[in-house]
Amino acid sequence: MAKAKIGIYWAAACGGCDCALLEVNEQILDVVAAADILLWPCAADPKYSDLRGYKNGEIDIVLFNGAIRTQENRELAQLIRTKTKYLVAFGSCAQSGGVIGLANQSSRDEIFSTVFGDQANWPQLSSNQDGYDLHLPEFLPRLTNLAEVVEVDYVVPGCPPPKQIVSALFTALVAGDLPATGTVFASSKNLCEECSREREQLKITQILRPHAHESDPDKCLLDQGFMCMGPATRGGCLAVCPAANMPCTGCAGPTANIRDQGAAMLNTVASLIGTGEEGEDQLAAEDAILAQFDDIVGTFYRFGAATSIFKERYHERNATTR
Amino acid sequence: MSSPRIGVFVCHCGLNIERTVDTQSVSETLRQYSGVAFVSDYDYMCSDPGQQLVSDAIREHRLTGVVIAACSPAMHEPTFRRAADDAGLNSYLVEMANIREHCSWVHLDRAEATAKAVKIIKTMVEKVRGNHPLDPVRIDHVDKCLVIGAGITGIQAALDVADAGFQVLLVEKEPSIGGHMAQLSETFPTLDCSQCILTPKMVEASRHPNIELLTYSEVLDVAGYVGNYTVKIRKNPTYVDPDKCNLCGDCEKVCPQSVPSEFERGLVDRKAIYIPFQQAVPSTYTLDEHSCLGLQPLRCSECAKVCAPGAINFDMQPEILQEEVAAIIVTTGYDMYPILNLGEYGGGDVPDVIDGLQFERMLSASGPTGGQVRRPSDGRVPKRVVFVQCAGSRDPENHNAYCSKICCMYTAKHALLYRHAVPESEAIIFYIDIRAGGKGYEEFVQNATEHEQIQYLRGKVAKIYREGDKVMLWGVDTLSGKKVEIEADLVVLALSMDPHPSTLALTKTLKISCGGEGFLKEAHPKLRPVETLTAGIYVAGAGQGPKDIPESVAQGSAAAAKTIALLTQDKLSHSPETVSIDEEICGGCGVCVGMCPYTALSLTAAGVAECNEVLCEGCGTCVSACPTGAAQLKNLTDFQLREMIEVALADG
Amino acid sequence: MDKTHATYEPRIVAFLCRWCSYAGADLAGVSRLTYPANIVPIRVNCSGRVDADMVLSALEKGADGVLIGGCHPGDCHYVTGNYKTRRRIVLIKQALSEVGIDPRRVHLEWISASEGIKFQSTMTSYTELIRELGPSPVRATKAPVHG
Ligand SMILES: Cc1cc2nc3c(=O)[nH]c(=O)nc-3n(C[C@H](O)[C@H](O)[C@H](O)COP(=O)(O)OP(=O)(O)OC[C@H]3O[C@@H](n4cnc5c(N)ncnc54)[C@H](O)[C@@H]3O)c2cc1C
Ligand code: SF4
Ligand code: SF4
Ligand code: SF4
Ligand code: FES
After folding, report:
1. Complex prediction ipTM
2. Is the beta carbon of B609 within 6 A of some atom in ligand 3?
3. For residue A264, what are the domain limits?
4. pLDDT tens-digit readout, A52-67
5. Judgement on whether residues A33 and A97 belong to the same structural domain of the protein
6. Which CATH number does the domain housing residue C61 bear?
7. Cβ-count burial of B370 within 10 angstroms (0-12 exposed, 13-18 middle, 19+ buried)?
């Protein structure tokens, strides 16, 4: 059997996903034995021309990590799509925009002044330095996930994808036995299934933040008031965050029946919030709990904002009117 | 799945729809809509020929779903579902698009109304596209019911159900049935003797071939659901064989142990072996092991020595019974608000401050004083009795916030009976308001005030204390605004009514709820007063809230009627539009479980949620709360709703 | 009113509880109480079924306003469904204002089966409000992919 040809690409990413590939330890050797890595900017130094040189569909599979933030990200995503048979959205940013999707809440100018300070220091699309013409890719008005730009065949969720999920992908890859397209390499169930914490109260009487409050290591974090996204998040990571006293932040995205992970979690949390009793006389007390949130979008859409209605900032005049 | 063939039937409703909605254009538009295989419009779709048109089209065009664009589903959904069923199309594949009440009747502009009608119909086409054929849930049931608490309410309910030919298990905690009514002297507003009207019913209940009486018993556990509850009952040992006991009372005479009599409300003592009152049912003595000198090891056994028929058996063990019942009626009644909580009124401290039930016992011919009013302290006949209404009621700061409802009436009764019993006497009543709503009630109170020279003082008593052999009351007459100080021989507190102390624990066992005040909670205060949210469990009587005998009996009969309606059904039937759980997705987070007002949801041993479709009412509250989308309402899934939303908002 | 709003017809979807607001709408119909035709009703069994996904989907699909009609507190046919939705709506509104969407685009109203007049006045005033607010900004989402 001919060796499979694989590629690994990073777009708007932090690099964590590339490192996560190595988390599988010696399994990487099986991958290298079974496949030729044609593209891996993080490890080698391929040129655009190399990529353009491949025939359409010549690469078997590309693991694409990172979101689409710049015109270059977009062009490469489109180019890679033509060159590969299967395209994998690898990691939360490729899957749903990831944490950096929250940047869509700020305009390009706001982002630039935060990052580069004075407008004089902002990068120019075209400039000339030391006699060389430099061209920078355009910073897109809105960050997106991979699927909004090109068709995606598989999803490997996680920020970064945990070892056993990457390993599952590699196993399928090495065996030449990829599942049906559309497969998400994670559990079909929510994280709570893998979490060993004791759930009993199922009522949220207060909203706590992990940096400000200590949690009981045995009890369900949500029960205690920490906004654990576990219920609205696919398992597969073996609940390592709750096990380490960190509420799940939802990096693996929602289960198959859910369109909007943040909305699902908001539903759950709002359903559970209360004093233990329900009635008209409890409404004020409920409002007092609800008021303890100060960043709903950041809480429930930490990884999914870019693929939700919160994918951008709107500018209605009376946005704060109730 | 083969492609859908949906039929759309647009009704003109004479001119009711046609006037503002262009049914022709609506039909034309729908004909072009994906999945729609047949469109027809007609003057009156609900008429016989209209229904025929639908049936014929279902057969001829092999329709897989039907949308009737006409009036509100509240009007004719059953009509068209039946028609479809007759034509061989599952009735749950038929939906109404409400283009009359929600469109033609409320809009004036024909173009706008027509456009909106199209959208409404398209949403229903989308719903039907996602609908699945369903069959009503059918459940077998047993033919027995359980009544918990045998006061007058429970007795009435048991008799009604038994008379209808069904088996009843009547469980009472105390050694005798009868509840509080057995303690009353005469009853307002007609002043008939309480025992005289109650005892025949007690006897009837004990002899009824369809009633099994379990006294001195309690319900330990309840599992299952409507039609098929499994209950565990513990029958506590009475150590006396009721069949052998001939009521000679010899045991009682030799028993060395005395404790305050519950039935006489502590006015006198009873022995450790006792019969609560002479007319008790079952008619037998009971050995109360808690006040006995000791059974294990036997410390005394004087009673057994004198019992000629040998009825006493110290080895009697508790019995645990398991029974299957279809329905449960909870009639656990009330208790008096603890008099000790009323320290300001000398409660528990001043012997001549008593509660209303103690006064009832005094007034009873069979009571400890033989019907004479006497002061507990010295046995003297009091010449001035002050009655204090609302003692512990309507006082949100210190006591119960609610009104106990019956105290106005029984206090008037008490004063009146006292005036009859002691001619040269004075009866004074402190009251906040007189609430005498009820047939003959106002007249009763009026009569008491006018003819019996009972003095009503509007105001609140601040303090009651003992001075010498008198009882002093300080208060304010709120009509004159003056302070009043009264010297009384006896004070009777119309104590607030509390739910029976076992109520909370029992509701936990039954998984029904208590209201804020601790009384049994009904499903709907107006429309479902004797039902609970759990199908097949009913509540009635003073356990559901303070009430008098007529109301209690009415509720007992109402709960019986509900139970009979259930028991007479061959099989119980239930809408299949319930929740389904996708086990592939459900991670067992349990969020849904606590959402369901009907306890339809639970987690299985395998760690996934399970919906008992018999209990699910299809509200969808759990669906909204489920974070994975594993819980879905049949025929109104997230997916269907999204499609409906999309077409509701789409262009033209 | 903004000029661009002059020709704009608000699109509103209303999720109505079958026991109260849907029946209230029926009563408005029977009483021939007229109101604007901008609102398309969708019947649910209880306002407790209305979740954030439905509301946000509607906004994403181009709704200028989303109305939820439920039973008055204490009157929910299923006892407490309406309280849960009320809490959801509070959070949804807060999330919308966080991203600069006027939270009045989502509105919860208790309308009983006997309040035909309240149904009419709610539909009328809500349509007017949404007309004033103009088209939802979500309708004009930035296109990230130009080519
Ligand atoms: C001082 C006074 C005077 C009154 N006078 C009148 C009057 O003149 N006219 C009138 O109409 N009404 C009168 N009433 C009201 C009357 O007493 C009640 O309306 C009536 O007794 C209510 O009947 P019930 O069966 O609902 O409750 P109850 O009489 O309280 O009976 C409840 C029964 O359930 C049993 N039970 C409780 N918990 C359990 C359990 N967990 N398991 C098994 N069994 C249990 C109890 O032991 C009791 O036998 C008076 C009340 C008071 C306090
Ligand atoms: S909510 Fe979080 S902490 Fe609680 S069980 Fe689920 S994953 Fe574990
Ligand atoms: S809420 Fe959903 S995921 Fe959680 S247990 Fe219930 S059905 Fe399963
Ligand atoms: S739909 Fe309502 S009744 Fe049915 S299981 Fe869910 S919460 Fe319970
Ligand atoms: S039934 Fe109307 S809001 Fe719950």
Report:
1. 0.96
2. yes
3. 191-311
4. 999 999 999 999 999 9
5. yes
6. 3.40.50
7. exposed
